[in-house]
Each structure stands twice: as structure tokens, then as C-alpha cells.
Amino acid sequence: MISIHDIKGVLVTIGIVLVFSYGGFYIIRRIFRREFLRIYRYSLSLITGGVILYISLIGLVLSSYYAKRYSIWLFVIGCVGFTLLFYSESVLAQCEHKKEEYRKLLCSTKKLAIYDAIMFIVLIIKYYLIN
Hints:
- The chain is 82% helix and 0% strand.
- It is mainly alpha-helical.
- The chain has a domain of 89 residues.
- The model has no long low-confidence stretch (mean pLDDT 86).
């Protein structure tokens, strides 16, 4: 009989991947505007954020089975992908002349970028300076 504790890591990984996949798909579907793809800041951050997010999710699934040490790094990289998607959403609000929404989204993007930087610094300290 298989215990829930034996497959706990698999269930957590599947949950994280499903939540991040749905969130990324929802954001991309909501903010994708074909007519604004000519704007460099919008298109580059949208495409890069989506690619980084989904490649890190695939890597997160694979690393949870083969190399658990790198899965936390891929989680943080997935968070960077979300930050880029939020940035492209703020650029879209600026292009559509929604100043209040632009300010709110840019403030949220800056906070997410600070959190990502803190997570990277903590991981660098943990894996390279403490060990």
C-alpha cells in the first residue's frame, strides 16, 4: 500500500506546477494584444517572461525527480518569469493610457523584483557561502 507520505513530494510539485501554469496562461491570455507587439518593451518582456516561466516549470518537474538541489533555483526563476509578465502588463497599461493602473502595476512589479532579488541573494548565500 502506498502511503501519502511516499508521494508527498510529487503531489507538492504537481500542485506548484499546476498553479504556476494556470497563472501564467491566465496572465498571457488576458494581456496579449497583437497590435502592441510592435512595442519592444511589451513584446520582449511578454515573450521572455512566458518562455522563462514555462521552461522553469518543466525543469522543476524534472529536477524534482533527478536533482532536488536545483528545484528551488528553478522555482525562483519561475518567479522571475512572473515578474516579467507583470512588467509587460504594466507596459500594456501605459500603452493603453491607463495611468492609474500603470502606476499600480509598476509598483507591484518593483516589489516582485525586489523579492526575486532577495530570494536570489538568500540562495547564493545558502549554497555558496554556507556550504
